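Lecture notes, continued. The same structure-token format from the folding unit now serves as the input rather than the output. Read the line below as a description of shape only.
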């Protein structure tokens, strides 16, 4: 499994999303993901920014990735399969955070509606 695929899956991105970020179509990105040796420096820089890792992490053939801002508290991804449990926990935490944020958005929408009604009545 390529490092680019691991990074994409850890971040729960689709190939289409990453391809759009790079300015290429999905089939082109799929080829890059399978054979990252064809990755251009500009593309590596965009991927590093997207995944918040160093460009050297993107360009190296080593599967170990160190996160710049440590979005995953465990620090390093050493092997996609060995770390699957950790990834599942991260995804679960993200889903829980999304749920909480959606509830907050709903609450704020209700408050906004109430304020608009108050303004209209005055």
């Amino acid at each position: 499994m390529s490092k680019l695929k691991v990074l994409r899956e850890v971040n729960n991105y689709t190939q289409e999303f990453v391809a759009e970020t790079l300015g290429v179509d999905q089939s082109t990105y799929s080829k890059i993901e399978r054979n990252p040796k064809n990755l251009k420096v500009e593309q590596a820089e965009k991927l590093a920014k997207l995944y918040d890792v160093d460009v050297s992490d993107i360009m190296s053939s080593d599967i170990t990735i160190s996160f710049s801002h440590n979005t995953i508290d465990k620090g390093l991804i050493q092997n996609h399969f060995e770390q699957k449990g950790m990834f599942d926990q991260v995804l679960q935490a993200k889903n829980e955070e999304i749920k909480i944020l959606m509830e907050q958005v709903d609450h704020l929408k209700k408050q906004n509606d109430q304020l608009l009604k108050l303004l209209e009545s005055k």
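Point for the exam: Residues 1-82 form a domain with the 434 Repressor (Amino-terminal Domain) fold (CATH 1.10.260.40).
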